[in-house]
Task: inverse folding
């Protein structure tokens, strides 16, 4: 990923925040036949417990996924790249005060993204898979007034569903983020982007601040 210094996301905590806010990832792997594969799935971050361990991402894929036999054949797993897309938006030059002053403006696209590189392995353990599914459920049901729980479904039904999937764990070797939000523009231009995102696209205050360099 091209990383101009003014857009580079330097802090680990900032990258983790993007993952937490946008957990639906694109997982890129290299299958045994040399073909690149991309799977789209939610991944949960498990920060390292101490200095001797690494941060991890956990999730699951269908047992029928071609990725499964590929990883089964590898003794130490395989290389993988997980991409997390945070807020993003088209920015029209019509918002810029400079358009009215001299017209030397062009469109752009502002965004946040995090790339996570690491080693991916399968975990085909019923207890682990159930714990992971429970953690995913709690993560995405937690904000609801009446959250659904895994225990709400019949136990044999959940067991059957879990047999159809395989757990995955990505041990993070390095992580990098990019936050392109017109940071190099003037305060007047960033304010105009913020107002345009709210007015024309209906973006929330947080999204608009994130994408206009005001956060």
Result:
């Amino acid at each position: 990923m091209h990383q101009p210094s003014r857009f580079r996301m330097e802090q680990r905590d900032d990258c983790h925040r993007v993952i937490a806010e946008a957990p639906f990832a694109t997982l890129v792997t290299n299958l045994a036949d040399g073909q690149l594969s991309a799977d789209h799935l939610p991944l949960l971050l498990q920060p390292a417990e101490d200095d001797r361990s690494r941060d991890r991402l956990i999730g699951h894929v269908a047992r029928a996924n071609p990725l499964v036999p590929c990883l089964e054949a590898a003794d130490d797993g395989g290389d993988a790249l997980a991409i997390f897309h945070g807020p993003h938006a088209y920015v029209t030059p019509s918002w810029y005060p400079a358009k009215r002053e001299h017209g030397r403006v062009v469109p752009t696209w502002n965004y946040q993204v995090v790339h996570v590189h690491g080693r991916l392995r399968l975990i085909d353990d019923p207890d682990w898979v159930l714990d992971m599914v429970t953690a995913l459920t709690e993560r995405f049901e937690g904000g609801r007034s009446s959250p659904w729980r895994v225990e709400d479904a019949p136990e044999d039904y959940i067991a059957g569903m879990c047999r159809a999937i395989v757990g995955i764990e990505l041990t993070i070797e390095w992580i990098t983020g990019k936050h392109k939000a017109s940071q190099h523009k003037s305060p007047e231009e960033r304010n105009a982007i913020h107002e345009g995102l709210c007015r024309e696209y209906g973006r929330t205050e947080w999204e608009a601040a994130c994408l206009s360099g005001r956060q």
